[in-house]
Queue: 4 jobs
Job 1
Amino acid sequence: MLHPVGPLPTRVYWRRRLVVLAVLLAVLGAGTWGGFLLLSGGSANAGGSASTEAAEPAPTPALELVVPSLTAVRTPEPPEPVAADPALPAPEVAAAPPVEAGGPCSDDMLAVEVRTPGTAAVGAKPVFELVVVNASATPCVRDLDKGLQELILLDGAGARVWGSNDCFPESGPDVRTLAPGEAVVFPVVWGGLTSAPDCAGERTPPPPGSYAVRGRLDTKSSPDAALALT
């Protein structure tokens, strides 16, 4: 190898050997450089892909686009009770409107009572009393017209025996202002005979027995008062 043998000059053979050597070196260098580029390029691509994938956020699941996550929904908290401030005044309660002084006396503001002697002889003429009282705490006005007053006598079975307006009715305005607790007394004389409305029928003395006298002022009635005829 080192001493070529042939018909050509020695330098020719050396040149050929140098050319072949240079080609071999070039091929080896190119192969080594290509392998280095492949290795370095693959690592760079892998690193770049990994970093790109790490930088990009994961896509939101399709279900969460429609139904929000439970962790994203805030449940409202109940309000805390507010303690009453003792320095603040207590709320006022609306009171019922007071009755106007000097206004009309309603039936609820009045008390009506009948007084009798308790006992009377058959055919006698006892005196009864119709008592009207302002039972309220406010002065009020009421018409005490005699045409609005009436006394009736009832027997033990509750049948009507006599009425004060049957035969001798009276009428006339009598508007009064009644002070609180004021009582007005109206005496009524019974003639001792039976009667009917408009004074119809025969009038006779009722027989002995237990009776009751009931009074009224317009629409306000009294409890019954006892009367015994002997």
Job 2
Amino acid sequence: MRTKSVVYTRQRKKKIFRLAKGSYATKKNRWRMVTQQVQRSLAYAYVGRKDNKANYRTLWIIRLNAAVREEGMSYNRFISGLKKANIVIDRKMLADIAVNDNASFKQLVAAAKAA
């Protein structure tokens, strides 16, 4: 007796159709268009996650540069001074300190200037 794959095929297709939900025109209800759109969307999502990390790093550097310039120093001298002073804090935490805790950030700038 021949086995039919209807149930499994429908389950597999439903999973892809769910991923294509919200797409424009026939990209949400025609099988060939759906598969193409989902493949493209997943590829862009992967690239977007990488871009997001770069965008956040850029934001932290911009915030640090603004905060350091208020103290009369440039960003690259600040980072160089921190490295010479053996202060290992990543840019995310430095930007957070600059925004939320001004007193301790001024101490970090002073330590970078001293080094």
Job 3
Amino acid sequence: MRAVGCVFEVGGETVWSPASRVGETYLALAEGLAGLVGVPTGFTAMAADFHEVDIVRFQAFTEHVFREYFRSGHELRRMMVDGVLRPSVVMLTRGGARIEPETEEQRVYLAEAEKLSGRMPV
């Protein structure tokens, strides 16, 4: 029987609980991106549908992807990375960490990413 949800937890607190396919898609994209940028995600699978998030490693991953996003001028690459980055920003914030923007463009991006929070169930 297939699980109906996926759980991501930081320190015993759920930071996101998407539907199974959404969680699987996010994980596949995040792990693939982690391999490309050479920084681990900080996720540990406790079960197929349950992941502990090491907030320190996850913050390093999210910050690295964030910086890469803004270093790239390639519109299509940015669009692809955005699919991982926005939910990562929300989970990071829910886990008690933040990314400090260095530019106005970055500040606006983070504010826009946080708007996704209402559509990310916990």
Job 4
Amino acid sequence: MSNLYWLSEAQMARLQPFFPKSHGKPRVDDLRVLSGIIFINRNGLRWCDAPKEYGPVKTLYNRWKRWSDNGVFARIMVGLASESAEHKTIMIDATYLKAHRTASSLRAKKGGAAVRSGEPKVA
């Protein structure tokens, strides 16, 4: 079994309204390219390390860059979030949640170890 990631037809159908219209020459397969972009981002790879099954690296990068600059990915996220809110289903993926390095120094300024351990601060 392959470790490659592929969007399903149902997922692509949900995303289709957010894609920009093709002007003139038809675009390379959106399913292949978008699946490749997701694979690269999910695995933290460099563009040059993309598996050849997703097509030319330059195509993946160019589509990602153009759609990022035009706000396509932002519209997709907002659109999917609003659909989720309509259905009252909100899911948060905290696997990429990171605390900023200054969070601990702010706590230290407000009381140091006593605050961190939950003990009352003695004056």
